[in-house]
């Protein structure tokens, strides 16, 4: 890692005032990666530019002489600058989620709200589902996002076609009771969910969205979920 950072450190110390700007860096990176870049932002660290592309952050210098992938740590605070930026860059407007495509569960007063994108064959999703089952006074929107295997799509369709979608989901994810339906109803919602997930650059499950728009990828502990819900109690 230090070998990767050294050229950037030398550039910051020895170079003349930069002639580059975000637009020129964006154009150069797109030319090298042959992918559209969502944004480029100059950072206060070592003359680095933050490049947001394909749902991840990479860093480069003004000449785009190298691309650095990994966490950038502020040496004073020892906090991950990359993680904080990812939270902002991947945040959404919660009301923009197509909630009618999700399996909806309301418990208690339902005032605390969050949404998840999950694959029915995802082990981490099953682990999180057992924790989520302990929550009360929540409204949970679960988007069936079958990206792991053809069987994931079949199970998603079966769950969506069940008379009680929430029960079918929990029976499978929490209790291991496989859905018994044929999955032969209108499953357009599952197809649209897959399209939505791709647009949101969701590359893994589970992915959780809270009412303030923050996205957290991966299974998160129940205590963290409770903390976020306490910050955004209103429906």
UniProtKB/TrEMBL annotation:
Gene Ontology cellular-component terms listed: periplasmic space
Segment forming the signal sequence: 1-20
One matching Pfam family is DsbC_N
Name the domain of life this protein comes from: Bacteria
Say yes or no: keyword Transport present: no
Compartments, as annotated in UniProt:
Periplasm
Against InterPro entries, the record matches this protein to: DiS-bond_Isoase_DsbC/G, DiS-bond_isomerase_DsbC/G_N, DiS-bond_isomerase_DsbC/G_N_sf, Thiol:disulfide_interchange, Thioredoxin-like_fold, Thioredoxin-like_sf, Thioredoxin_CS, Thioredoxin_domain
Keyword list, A-Z? Disulfide bond, Periplasm, Redox-active center, Signal
**Domain Thioredoxin per the UniProt entry, residue ranges:** 67-234
Q: Name one GO molecular function term.
A: disulfide oxidoreductase activity
UniProt KW Electron transport keyword: no
The task this protein performs is described as: Required for disulfide bond formation in some periplasmic proteins. Acts by transferring its disulfide bond to other proteins and is reduced in the process.
Question: What family does this chain come from, according to its entry?
Answer: Belongs to the thioredoxin family. DsbC subfamily.
According to UniProt, the name of this protein is: Thiol:disulfide interchange protein
Q: Which organism is it from?
A: Candidatus Accumulibacter phosphatis
| GN (gene name) | dsbC
